[in-house]
Amino acid sequence: MLINGRNMSIVMDFITHSEAYFKCLSTSDCWQDVLGHFELFQPDIYLCFVDSVYSKILSQTNALRGDSKYNNAPIFVVADEETYTELEQNPRPAISVVIKRPISTDNLILRITAHLEQRERAAQAEAEKEAQRLAELERRRAAANQKTPQKNSQADQAPKRSSIWETWENEIKPIDITPKKNVKTANTANTSNPVSGNAAPQAAKPAEPNAAAAESNGAKTDAADAGSGKKHILIVDDDRTVLKMLKSALEEEYDVTTMVNGLMVEKFLMAKKVDVVILDYEMPGQTGADIFRKLKMNDKTGKIPICFLTGISDREKIMEVMSLRPNSYLLKPIDMDMLKAAITNLTH
Question: pTM for the complete prediction?
Answer without folding.
Answer: 0.41
